[in-house]
Amino acid sequence: MFSSRRYGGLNTMSRQIPKLRIGPVEIGFPVVQAALAGYSDWPMRVIATRLGAPYTVAEVMLDRFVLNVSRGRKARQYIRTTDNEHPCGAQLMGSVPEEFAAAAVKMVEAGFDVIDLNFACPVKKVLGKCRGGFLLSTPETALEIVARVREAVPAAVPVTVKMRRGMDDTPESRKNFYTIFDGAFRLGTAAITVHGRTVRQHYEGRSSWEFLCEVKRHAGPRTVLGSGDVFTAQDCLEMIAQTGVDGVVVARGAIGNPWIFRQAMASAAGEPVTIPNLSEQREVIAEHYRLAEETYGPERCCRLMRKFGIKYSRLHPHAEEVGAAFVAVAQREQWHNVLKEWYMDG
After folding, report:
1. Are 215 and 181 in contact (CB under 8 A)?
2. CA 177/CA 246 separation, integer angstroms
3. Considering 275, 295, 328, which residue would you say is the last residue of a domain?
4. In this structure, are 254 and 282 located in the same domain?
5. Domain identity same for 282 and 270
6. What is the pLDDT of residue 12?
């Protein structure tokens, strides 16, 4: 369906990579899409799935939001799954164990295959409300959340956890990390994703793959996924090779480059790795817009899609000009005019 050109920067040597499984859910190729706040909505997940992502996770949702918005148009926009994107996970964030559990049940009823618990978000306003990464400093509360969610959802639905390596690099944070990590597995967690930065690092500095290696050695046969500094297909395969993690969760590297999953599969199979030509980029960007318009309506869609246009533009030979053109878009016709002007091969 798509044409493309060779991407010469990757090592295409064949690699034997075990298939990923999360509890009873078969994933397959172990490079998956992360929950991305403000990005991994239904349209993005569908595009990623079509381009090779074997598993995607919806953008993180506040447990109270899920409980208060369970029907109507707003629910259809945010709490939505369709047959063409399974398996898919729902990521929840909050601070009250009971609300976490009730929201998890709602997400299972909405059709999500996996419930993921966010103990990782480093955003200041999230930490200030004792959510996300803050829970790494309160193992008792974090483990109560895991226990209540695991008890609330059906046994066939895996519960997973997203963590950072700690609030900071103090001995206390390290101790808390392993208390939560081991405790969550004892309570029935099927897999844990570990981001190699601390909460205090936010997204600055290097993600410690050395820590991922340490965690996987500690975990043994338990399923650990790695996250952090994964922006290319080569990064995905190198993380697995260097750390031994069971899978890789691609976050920012998948925004504007949903082809990364197909590229990783090709590289692992020893096949030529390609990047999309302008015609394929145009086709995918146009389809992404169509799905977003279906989800949000014509007025809201255009504003929401600008941030995706900026990210897609990074693959274009004239990235700065194309990004500026997407920023200026105010209606559907202008979006398609950008594609006609900038995404024609030849």
Report:
1. yes
2. 19
3. 275
4. no
5. no
6. 38
